[in-house]
Design goal:
The structure is a homodimer.
Chain A (H helix, E strand, L loop, with lengths): L22 H10 L3 H5 L3 H8 L4 H21 L10 H10 L2 H16 L15 H33 L1 H23 L12 H5 L5 H39 L11 H12 L4 H11 L4 H53 L10 H11 L5 H11 L9 H4 L2 H5 L2 E4 L12 H15 L1 H25 L11 H21 L1 H6 L1 H21 L6 H4 L14 H39 L19 E6 L2 E6 L10 H13 L3 H11 L4 H36 L9 E8 H14 L2 H17 L3 E8 L3 H8 L1 H26 L7 H11 L1
Antiparallel strand pairs in A: 1-5, 2-3, 4-5
Helix pairs in contact in A: 4-13, 4-14, 5-7, 6-7, 7-8, 10-11, 10-13, 10-24, 13-27, 14-15, 18-20, 19-20, 20-22, 24-25, 24-27, 28-29, 31-32
Keywords (chains A, B): Calcium, Calcium channel, Calcium transport, Coiled coil, Endosome, Ion channel, Ion transport, Lysosome, Membrane, Repeat, Transmembrane, Transmembrane helix, Transport, Voltage-gated channel
Protein name (chains A, B): Voltage-dependent calcium channel protein TPC1
Subunit structure (chains A, B): Dimer. Interacts with MTOR; the interaction is required for TPCN1 ATP sensitivity. Interacts with STX7, STX8 and STX12. Interacts with JPT2. Found in a complex with LSM12, TPCN1 and TPCN2.
C-alpha cells in the first residue's frame, strides 16, 4: 500500500483542458452547437457559467460539479432520472439540495403536524383561535407550494408528474389548501380527516429518507403478510361459526350470542385480551368446552401468528439483501458516471489528483487539503499517479475516513517533565489495570445492593429527607475520584472517545446534579436522584455477550429511531381520525349500557364516615386531544385490555367504531412484526458476522494507514498556490513546519471511521458481490447497444444514455 | 446407474467362511482363546451361539446381527459406548430393543403419570382408594425396576452408572418406591411434590426420543437465554426503584406503594397483563407519568423481549446445524463399522449381495427378497458386483425407499373393455381439467358464503331444527358426486394418495354423518354438522404460498407434536406442585381481601323480582385436580389476566406463592420462545430451500428407478433355494411368472419415499458437508494410532477401538 514514487508527477497540470465539457455545454452542443438555451437560464449561476464558457477551467469546474452530483445521487440512492438536465434545472437542484432548504422543508412539515395540537379538539393549554391556526396552516402550505415549484423546476414537468410521491404530495397539498381556505372563510372547523394526510409532508422530507425506506419495506412485506392474515381471518370465521353453534344455546354466555359477537370476541381473543373471561361462562357449564379455546389459541395465536412473523422475517431478509445489492450497484454506476467526467483525453486510464481535488471541493466542501490528498492516496492502490476506475470504486468507503496524524507520543503527558510524567504514567497504569476495573465493578455492585436495601427499608414516606444520606456522598466521591483518575490517566480526549466512559461521565454528572438538588432543596429536580441506579448498567461490561448486545443496540439505534418515527406517523393518522370521530365521546360514568361499565365508573360515595372513590379510570383513555390520543393508541398497541377501550367507545357511538380499532390493531401488528423482524435480522446478522470473523472481534471500526513524505506536501502546496487557495496553502505549510520541528521526512496518518451495516454486509456477501458485479456489467454491456438508437429521441428523459453515448464518441 | 453384467457373480458363495467372526468370539479370543465366558452365558441365544461356534455360517450370522445393531445405533443416534459388549449384553440388548419392550416402557410411564388423576386431589369421577392407587403405583415401579435391570445387564455396571439420565431415573425410582411404601403403610397421602418427577419415566422412553431432543435443545439454549433474562430483570429492578420513588407519594396508587409491589407489578407489566390499569392512578394525577410506562415497555417488551427471541433463534439455528452435522457423522461412523463386519478377506473392496441380504434380514426383517435385492442394486453405483464403502454410505437414504413395479398401464382402467375405458378416460380428463377444479372451488366458496349468511340469519334459537335444510343436501350431493367422479376417474389408490383428497374425503364423510345425525335426530352428534365450514379450507389450495405453508405445516407436525408434549411435561410438573400447595385454596367469594375480589365473586341476589347472578368465574381457575390444573396453567401460558389468578391464590396463601407463578411464566417463556424459534427456523429454512431449488418445487419426495432383468431374478431364486427360504423363493417366482406373462425380459421398479428434513439439510449444506467429512476422516486418522495402545486396557469401555484394532490386524 505504501510506495515511494517521485510524487511531483501527481501535480502536473492535466495539460489539455476541456477534454470533455460539462453536460450543459455538451447537451446543447448536441442540439446544434448553439448555447442560446443556456444563455436564457435566469439563475445567476447559470449566467456566470455561460459567460465563462470558453474557459477550460470553467468547463472542468462544471465537470467537477456534475461528478459530485452523481456521487451524491449514488450515496443518497437518488435515481439518475432525476439528475438535473440543464442549467435551469441545475440551479434549482443546487437550491433544493442544501441543508437550509432541507431544514425549511422539515420545519414546515413539523409546523403542519404540530398544528393539530392547537386545532379544534386542542390540548387545553395550546388552544389557538381558528383564525390564527388556519392562517398558520395557510402560510405553511404556501411554503410547501414554493418547495414543490422548486422541485418542478429541477425535475422538469415530465419527470415531475411521473414521480408518484411528489404527485401524491401535490394532490394532498391541493386538498389541504382548499380546506384551509374553507375553514378561514367559514370560521369553523369541519370534519377534517384529511389532516391525517399531513404526514406526507414529513415523509417527503430529505431528512426522513429512513422513514421512507421503512415505509417502502412495510409495503413490500405486505403481500405475503396479507396472505397469512387471510388464513388467520379465515380460521377466525370458521371458529366463529363453530363457537356460535356450540355456545349460543347457553344464555348466560354473552360472548357468543350472535355471530357478530362471536366474530368480535374471537378477534379480541386473538390478542388474548379477553382470554379467560371469554371462556368462563361455557367452561362453568361444561369443562370440556375449554378444548375449543385451546385449539383456537394454539392454531391462531401460537401457530399462524408465528407463521406471520416467519413470513415477514423471510421477506424482510430477502428485501434487505436485494436493497443492499441495488444500492451497491447504484453506487457503482454513480462512480462510473463521475469517473467518466474526470478522466482526460490524454490520460484515459485514471484521474489525476488535480481533478480529484476539484471533485472533492464540490462533494465535500469542508474537507481540508491534507484530507483530500490523503483520500486520494488511500484510493490509489497502483503505482501510477492516477486513480484508475477500479480504485475509484472504493470512493465511498474511503471518503468517509477521518484522518489524523499518527502520534509518536503514546500518551498525552509524554511531553511533560519527568516527575509529572512518572505520576501520570502511574495513574495510567493503575487506571488500565484489571484490579482497578474490578474494584470499580465491586463498588458499583455494592452501591446497587445498597440502593436496593435502602429503598426496601424506606417503605413509603419521608424518602426525600432534608439531609443528604451519607452513602450517597461516599459513592459519589468514589465515582468522582474514578472519573478524575481516568481523565488524568488517559487524557480527556481518549477518555471520552469510549462510549462507556461517556456513559459513566454523564451518569456521574447527573448524580452530582442530584446531590446539588438534594442539598439545595430544589424539588423539581429530585427525579435526578432517582437515576442513580443507572450506574449499575456498567456491570454489564463484564460479559462479552452483553457488550455485544449493547454494541449492537447502539448500532441499531438510528434504524430503531426511524422505525419508531414510522410508527408515530401511523399513530398520527389514526389519532386524527380518532379525534374527528371519538373526541369527547368517553367520560366518567359514560358507558353504563356496555359490559365494561365498571371500568368507566367514577363514584364518590360515603361508607360509614369515610369517602370512598371508586375509580375505573378508563375514561382517561380518550381521543379528546392529540396527546391523549397518542397515549390511548399506545395502550391499544400494547393490546392488553384494549377491548375495554373499544367497547367503551362502541357503546357511545355505533358498532362500526370497532372497525377503527380492529384496523388499528392490524396496522400496528404489521409495523410491530416488521420491528421484530428487523431486530431479529439485525442481531442474527451481527452474530453470524462475529461467528465468521472471530479474530476481528475487538476492532472499533475501519482503520487505514497512509504515509506522506515532505516532498509530497510541498508538491500539493505548489499546486494550491497556482489555484491561489490561501487557507489550504497555509494549512499545508503548517504540516511541513511540524515535520521540520520533529525532523521527520514523512508523517503517517491514520484514517478512521466506524463500521457501518454496509461494511458488514460487504464482508458477509463477499462472494455474491463479485457475481452481482459481473452480472451488472454484463447487463450494462448488453443494454448499451440497445439503448443507443433510442437515446436521441428520449434524451430529455435519459441523460444516462446520453452520457454513455458521448463517452463512446470520445 | 443401470448396467448389464452377468448377474450370476452376485450370488457366488463368499467362499472362505469366518473371515472374521462376530465380536463375541473375537473379544474372548482376545482374552486368551478360551470360550469359557461365552459358555457361561445364561441366555439361550448365547448358549445356542456357542454350540455352533465352529460353524462359519453362524459366525456370519453374528456379524450380520452386529452390523445391523450398528446401523440401528447410527439411525437412532445411540452412542456407540452403549454397544453391547458380550453375549449376555447382547441378549439383554435384543430383549430391550423391540417394540414390545418399548410399549411396556411407555405404558408403565403413562400409568404412573395417569395415577395423578386418581390420587389425593383426584378428578371426582376417577377417585380411587389410597390402597388401590398405591398398589398400582408400586406395581408400575416394579416394572420400571425390571426395565432398569435389563438395561443394566445390557450396558454393564460401569456404563450404567456413567449414564446420567439413567442414574437420575434410578434415584427418582428409589425415592418414589420409598414414598409409595410410606403411603401404603400410613394409608394417607403426604405432600408428594416428588410426583412431579414421574415425568422422567416418560422422557426416558424409547418412543419419546423427540422429547428428549427438545429438552436437550432447551437446555442448550438456556445460557444465552439466562443472560438476556438477567438484563431484563436488571432493568426491571432499576425501573422498580424508579417507580417506587416516583409514584409512592401518590396514596391512591396501590401498585407502587412498596418496593415489592413495585417489582411484582413491573413483572406483570412485562407480560402487559395489567397494562393500562397499572398506569391509570399516576396518569390521572399527572399525564406525563405515562412516559415512565412507555419507556419501560419499549425497552423491556419491545426491545429486550425481542432480543431474547433473536438470541434464542440464533442459538437454535446454530444448534440445529451442529446437531445435523453430528448425526450425519455418527451415521457415517455407524456405516463404517457395519461395513467392516461385512467385507470378506478375499474381497475387501466391497460387500457381496449375500452378506448384504444377511444384514437386511436383521436390520429390516419385514423386507421381502425383491426389495432387498433392489436396495442392493440402488446402492451399487459401480460396475462391480460388490457395494463399496463409498456406495454403502448412502445406506440410510436408500433403505427407506418403498419399491413398486413401474406400471405400464397409466390408469387403473386401462385393462377394461373399450367402452368402459372411454367412459373412465372421459371422467379422468374431466376430473383433471381446470374447469372442473375451478367449478368446485366456486361451489365451495358459494357454500361458504351460504353457511355464513345462514348462520347470520339464525340469531340464536332453533338452529337444530328437525327438518334437514335443503341447502345442506344440495351441497352434500355436489360434494358426493365430485368424490365419486374423482374416485372413479383417478382410481381409489391414486385418489387417496393425495393429502388434499384425503382431507376432502374425510370432510365429506363427516358432513354425511352429520346429515345422518340430523335426519335421525341423534343429538350428541350434532357437533359434526358444525364441522361443515372446514370444507372451505380447500380454497387455500388455489394459491402457491398457502400450499407451501400448509405443506410445511404438515411436515412440521411431528416436531410440533413433540414440542407440545414437552410443554405438557412441564405442565405436569407444575400441575403436581400446584395441586400439592394450592388445591382447594380458591373458591367462590374467597379472595375478599385482595384487589381482585370481583373476579372471584359469586353473588345470587334479587333485584326487583328477578334473580341476578353476579359471577366472576375465576374460582374455576383452580388447582383442585390435575385437569383443572392443566386448564389453569394454559391460562397462565396465555398470560392475559394471569395476575388475577396469581393474586387470588396469593391472597389465600402467602405472598411466596407468587414465586410459583413467576417461575412458571419464565419457564413457559423459555419453551414458547423455543417454539417460536423453531417455527421461524423451519419456515425460513423451507423458504430458502424453495428459493434455492425453484425447479424441484413440484416433486413429492425422492424417487429412484432400477431395472431388474429376468436372469437376475432367477439368480436370486437360486441363492434363496440354497438357504431354503421358501417364502422368499415363492415371492420371487411370482415376479418371474409375471414377466413371462407380459413377455418382458426385465421390469423397472420405482423406489419412493417422502422427503425428510434431513434430505433438505443435505441439499442446503451440500458444500459444507464435504468439508465436515474431510475434517471427520482427518480426525479419525489422527485418533486411531493414538487410541491403539490404550484400547487393550480400556477394552470394556471402548468396544469401538477394539473393533478398529481387530480390523487393522486383519
Amino acid at each position: 500500500m505504501q510506495w515511494r514514487e517521485p510524487p511531483a508527477i501527481y501535480f502536473q497540470d492535466p495539460g489539455s483542458p476541456a477534454e470533455r465539457s460539462s453536460y450543459l455545454v455538451e447537451l446543447h452542443a448536441d442540439d446544434g452547437g448553439s448555447y442560446d438555451v443556456v444563455n436564457d437560464a435566469s439563475s445567476p449561476a447559470a449566467r456566470e457559467c455561460c459567460a465563462q464558457q470558453s474557459s477550460a477551467r470553467h468547463n472542468w469546474e462544471m465537470n467537477y460539479q456534475e461528478a459530485a452530483i452523481y456521487l451524491q445521487e449514488g450515496e443518497n440512492n437518488d435515481k439518475f432520472f432525476t439528475h438535473p438536465k440543464n442549467a435551469k434545472a441545475l440551479a434549482a437542484y443546487l437550491f433544493a439540495h442544501n441543508h437550509l432548504f432541507y431544514l425549511m422543508e422539515l420545519s414546515t412539515a413539523l409546523l403542519l403536524l404540530l398544528l393539530s395540537l392547537c386545532e379544534a379538539p386542542a390540548v387545553p393549554m395550546l388552544r389557538l383561535g381558528i383564525f390564527v391556526h388556519a392562517t398558520l396552516e395557510l402560510f405553511a402550505l404556501i411554503v410547501v407550494v414554493f418547495e414543490l415549484s422548486m422541485k418542478m423546476r429541477w425535475l422538469g414537468f415530465q419527470t415531475f408528474i411521473r414521480h408518484k410521491r411528489t404527485m401524491v404530495k401535490t394532490c394532498v397539498l391541493f386538498v389541504q389548501f382548499i380546506e384551509a381556505i374553507v375553514v378561514l372563510v367559514r370560521q369553523t372547523s369541519h370534519v377534517r380527516i384529511t389532516r391525517a394526510l399531513r404526514c406526507i409532508f414529513l415523509v417527503d422530507c430529505r431528512y426522513c429518507g429512513a422513514v421512507r425506506r421503512n415505509l417502502r419495506q412495510i409495503f413490500q412485506s405486505l403481500p405475503p403478510f396479507i396472505d397469512i392474515l387471510l388464513l388467520l381471518l379465515f380460521f377466525m370465521v370458521i371458529f366463529a361459526i363453530l363457537g356460535f353453534y356450540l355456545f349460543s344455546p347457553n344464555h348466560s354466555d354473552p360472548y357468543f350470542n350472535t355471530l357478530e359477537n362471536s366474530l368480535v370476541n374471537l378477534f379480541v381473543l386473538l390478542t388474548t385480551s379477553n382470554f379467560p373471561d371469554v371462556m368462563m361462562p361455557s367452561y362453568a357449564r361444561n369443562p370440556w368446552s375449554c378444548v375449543f379455546f385451546i385449539v383456537y389459541l394454539s392454531i391462531e395465536l401460537y401457530f399462524i401468528m408465528n407463521l406471520l412473523l416467519a413470513v415477514v422475517f423471510d421477506t424482510f431478509n430477502d428485501i434487505e439483501k436485494r436493497k443492499f445489492k441495488s444500492l451497491l450497484l447504484h453506487k457503482r454506476t454513480a462512480i462510473q458516471h463521475a469517473y467518466r467526467l474526470l478522466v482526460t483525453k490524454q490520460r484515459p486510464s485514471g484521474i489525476s489528483f488535480k481533478h480529484f481535488e476539484g471533485l472533492l471541493r464540490f462533494y465535500k466542501p469542508r474537507m481540508c487539503a491534507r484530507e483530500r490528498y490523503l483520500t486520494f492516496k488511500a484510493l490509489n492502490q497502483s503505482n501510477t499517479p492516477l486513480v484508475s476506475l477500479k480504485d475509484f470504486y472504493n470512493f465511498y468507503e474511503v471518503v468517509g475516513l477521518k484522518w489524523k496524524a499518527k502520534r509518536n507520543r503514546e500518551h498525552w503527558f509524554d511531553d511533560l517533565p519527568r516527575t509529572a510524567f512518572l505520576i501520570f504514567k502511574g495513574i495510567n497504569i493503575l487506571v488500565k489495570s484489571r484490579v482497578f476495573q474490578y474494584t470499580m465493578y465491586t463498588v458499583v455492585a455494592v452501591n446497587g445492593i445498597w440502593i436496593l436495601v435502602e429503598t426496601f427499608m424506606l417503605q413509603g414516606g419521608n424518602f426525600f429527607s432534608r439531609n443528604v444520606p451519607w452513602s450517597y456522598i461516599v459513592f459519589l466521591t468514589i465515582y468522582g475520584v474514578e472519573l478524575l483518575l481516568k481523565t488524568t490517566g488517559l487524557g480527556p480526549v481518549e477518555y471520552l472517545s469510549s462510549g462507556w466512559n461517556l456513559f459513566d461521565f454523564s451518569v456521574t454528572l447527573f448524580a452530582f446534579l442530584g446531590l446539588m438538588a438534594l442539598a439545595f432543596n430544589m424539588e423539581p429536580f429530585y427525579f435526578i436522584v432517582v437515576l442513580r441506579p443507572l450506574q449499575l448498567l456498567r456491570l454489564f461490561k463484564l460479559k462479552k455477550r452483553y457488550r455485544n448486545v449493547l454494541d449492537t443496540m447502539f448500532e441499531l439505534f438510528p434504524r430503531m429511531a426511524s422505525l419508531g418515527l414510522t410508527l408515530l406517523i401511523f399513530y398520527y393518522c389514526f389519532a386524527i381520525v380518532g379525534m374527528e370521530f371519538f373526541a369527547g365521546v368517553v367520560y366518567p360514568n359514560c358507558c353504563n349500557t356496555s359490559t365494561v361499565a365498571d371500568s368507566y365508573r367514577w363514584v364518590n360515595h360515603t361508607v360509614g364516615n369515610k369517602t370512598v372513590v371508586e375509580e375505573g379510570y378508563y375514561y382517561l383513555n380518550n381521543f379528546d386531544n392529540i396527546l391523549n390520543s397518542f397515549v390511548t393508541l399506545f395502550e391499544l398497541t400494547v393490546v392488553n385490555d384494549w377491548y375495554i377501550i373499544m367497547e367503551g367507545v362502541t357503546s357511545q357511538t355505533t358498532h362500526w367504531s370497532r372497525l377503527y380499532f380492529m384496523t388499528f390493531y392490524i396496522v400496528t401488528m404489521v409495523v410491530m412484526t416488521i420491528i421484530v423482524a428487523f431486530i431479529l435480522d439485525a442481531f442474527v446478522f451481527r452474530m453470524n458476522y462475529t461467528r465468521k470473523n472471530q479474530d476481528s472481534e475487538e476492532d472499533n471500526g475501519i482503520v487505514l494507514e497512509k504515509e506522506i513524505s515532505k516532498e509530497e506536501v510541498i508538491g500539493i502546496i505548489e499546486l494550491y498556490k497556482r489555484t491561489s487557495a490561501a487557507t489550504e496553502t497555509a494549512q499545508l505549510q503548517k504540516i511541513v513546519l511540524q515535520m521540520d520541528k520533529y525532523g521527520q521526512m514523512s508523517t503517517v496518518f491514520l484514517g478512521r471511521r466506524s463500521r457501518t451495516k454496509s461494511d458488514l454486509s460487504m464482508k458477509m456477501y463477499e462472494e455474491e458481490i463479485q457475481e452481482w458485479y459481473e452480472e451488472h456489467s454484463r447487463k450494462e454491456e448488453s443494454q448499451t447497444p440497445l439503448q443507443e438508437p433510442a437515446s436521441a429521441s428520449s434524451s430529455s428523459l435519459k441523460p444516462l444514455s446520453l452520457r454513455q453515448r458521448s463517452q463512446t464518441v470520445i
